Amino acid sequence: MIALTVSLQVVPGRRDAFLAAIREQAERSFTDEPGCRYFDVVCDLADDHHFVFHELYDDEAAVDAHRAAPHYPAWQRAVAAYVVPGSRVTTLSRLLFHHS
């Protein structure tokens, strides 16, 4: 299993539009991509414009399929419009254990 963690900062005044875009991205990833096991979106308690995504995929091929999915270009446009440039940090890791 491959964990994908994304941390980013949303441009002030763009939070609602960002939330609509990430809700769509997360939902489509989970429902339309067989290799996506979960896609959680969390918001920092101290900064309501800082978000972290916790995503889990079957393998690296599933991550590649995620990035090639038909809905992914819309997400890239949302990033360009709503995310503070340079604030997005993406980390790929191997899942060692998970508590359900």
From TrEMBL:
EC number in record: 1.-.-.-
Keywords: Monooxygenase, Oxidoreductase
Record Pfam families: ABM
Oxidoreductase among keywords: yes
Membrane-crossing segments per the record: none
Enzyme class: oxidoreductase
MF-aspect GO terms: monooxygenase activity
Keyword Plastid listed: no
The ABM domain, residue ranges: 2-92
InterPro entries: ABM_dom, AI-2_Isomerase_LsrG, Dimeric_a/b-barrel
Superkingdom per UniProt: Bacteria
Entry protein name: Quinol monooxygenase
Species of origin: Streptomyces millisiae
